[in-house]
Write a structure and sequence with these properties.
Elements (H helix, E strand, L loop, with lengths): L1 H17 L72 E13 L1 E5 L1 E2 L7 E16 L4 E18 L5 E19 L8 E9 L24 E12 L6 E14 L9 E10 L2 E3 L2 E14 L15 E14 L2 E21 L3 E9 L1
Antiparallel strand pairs: 1-4, 1-15, 2-3, 2-14, 4-5, 5-6, 6-7, 7-8, 8-9, 9-10, 10-12, 11-12, 12-13, 13-14, 14-15
């Protein structure tokens, strides 16, 4: 019955996310809150731009394909992170997350495309995100984080309009504020998240020739509604193997200066092992499949002709190390399928590391 109820909640969320227009999917990516936990479920105590870019390879040969872009949305970094799930403890957790991607391959439809078809040549981004999660009790919690980013962007432009020019800048990203409800079951195995993304990120960095498009900025300039949910349960009676599912969505509500980023939905389905250790340190290997859908940007400042919007699937092996009160989580996300609208730069792999401290 608990599994049935959990699937009903996630199914309802999925239906809502599928209602997001699928018309495009701009070219960037991280947002967050993640699932998978490094402890077995217990009865009471266990309770995740220049030009659009974004996705993985489409049908096969990944070695020659890349995946995504990340100025407008980066939701794929928001799912599948075991160390972020409620674990039955009230109180405060501080964390620092680092994400990296290098979009350097032109992609069109579901296959590689000639570099000459895309004026953008490379978007390389490092994201550093400090955040906090606080649970008042087993049912209610909050999460807040702000992104700092460094971006290297190479594109065609300059005084002649045909020069290859490059930019490297640091900027504050958008802020995410979310509430968490995990009171469906005593072990916190089912929960929903809700909140808003605030336009604190810089979205107007540019040169004298306007070579940096809105979809290549670090901030989006939009205020977005955030909605998500997660569910996890044991696959074995001894709790040594746990599976989890997670959904997140990012839906722009208010926007400015002629640019509205596409809505985004991301999902994760994965398994992780419990009970392994090296000395005092708990070790939890993890494997997950990630899926992302993003709609095309709209507005006078959006890419024209349309070059934003995507569908993508990634596989992601990961590892969580737990030496209480410190937890370290890391994974690599590798595209196995991607279909993009227009010509977009994509990356062959994405990387994520989270270090958290539980008070």
């Amino acid at each position: 019955m608990r599994l049935f109820n959990g699937l009903i909640v996630l199914g309802a969320l999925a239906c809502g996310l599928l209602a997001i227009p699928k018309a495009g999917v701009a070219q960037d990516l991280p947002d967050r809150f993640d699932p998978a936990v490094n402890e077995p479920l217990a009865s009471v105590s266990n309770p995740p731009q220049g030009q659009p870019a974004t996705q993985p390879s489409a049908q096969g040969d990944l070695s020659d394909s890349p995946l995504y872009d990340c100025a407008c949305g980066c939701g794929i970094f928001e799912v599948g992170t075991s160390s972020m799930l409620p674990t039955g403890m009230n109180g405060l957790m501080l964390y620092l997350e680092y994400d990296y991607m290098d979009q350097n391959k032109n992609w069109s439809g579901d296959k590689s495309a000639p570099p000459a078809d895309n004026g953008d040549k490379e978007i390389r981004t490092s994201f550093l995100t400090p955040g906090l999660q606080y649970f008042f009790n087993r049912s209610w919690g909050i999460q807040a984080e702000v992104m700092l980013a460094n971006r290297y962007f190479k594109t065609t432009g300059g005084a002649s309009g045909n020069d290859v020019v490059a930019f490297d800048w640091n900027a504050l990203g958008d802020t995410r504020l979310e509430g968490i409800y995990s009171g469906f079951f005593p072990d916190q195995s089912l929960g929903v998240t809700f909140g808003a993304k605030l336009p604190t990120g810089r979205w107007n960095h540019n040169d004298d020739f306007d070579d940096i498009d809105r979809d290549s900025e670090i901030g989006t300039g939009s205020t977005d509604a955030l909605l998500g949910g997660y569910y996890r349960n044991n696959l074995t009676t001894d709790g040594s193997v746990t599976w989890f599912a997670q959904l997140t969505s990012d839906i722009p509500i208010l926007f400015q200066d002629g640019y509205r980023p596409g809505a985004e939905a991301d999902a994760a389905l994965g398994v992780y092992l419990n009970g392994l250790s090296i000395g005092r340190m708990g070790v939890s290997p993890l494997f997950q499949v990630l899926d992302g859908l993003r709609g095309s940007d709209t507005g006078a400042e959006a890419s024209s002709p349309i070059a934003s919007g995507y569908e993508r699937v990634l596989v992601s092996p990961g590892l969580e190390l737990n030496l209480h009160p410190i937890t370290i989580y890391g994974d690599v996300e590798i595209p196995v399928y991607a279909r993009v609208i227009g010509n977009q730069l994509i990356a062959t792999s994405l990387f994520k590391i989270i270090i958290s401290y539980h008070f």
